[in-house]
Hints:
Elements: H1 2-19, H2 26-40, E1 44-50, H3 58-61, H4 66-76, E2 81-90, H5 92-99, E3 102-105, E4 111-113, H6 117-124
Parallel strand pairs: 1-2, 2-3, 2-4
Helix pairs in contact: 1-2, 2-4
Amino acid sequence: ELKQLIRVTEESLERAIAQCHPNKRLGDVGWAVQEIAEQYHLPTITMVQSGGAFLPDIAGIFPDKRIMTNIIRQSAKGIPQIASVHGPSTAGGAYIPALCDENIIVKNQGAMFLGGPQLTFAATGEQVDVE
């Protein structure tokens, strides 16, 4: 069983690396990893840190919402979806951990919100911190 897991892990890494081509979007790598995880019923761990995106570019980042759809579908199949939040994750970056089954949030670093302290200040004039 361990040899099978090692083989699957090696195959997963090879397929993910093969997707890392300068002309590919990062989402393509995520999709490849998710396909393998679903095929072998393996948990997916997503490392998250995102300051959000420039709104006119959002369609290119989540072109068909496949990454989020896969998280939901695989979770429904009982395949654990885990997010590790390493830093501030704003807007779209907050959706992925919100959809996962479990979150690991790095103390004093990780945070998730749709609008952070600067947006809150711009909208209301109120000073708030990440917490």
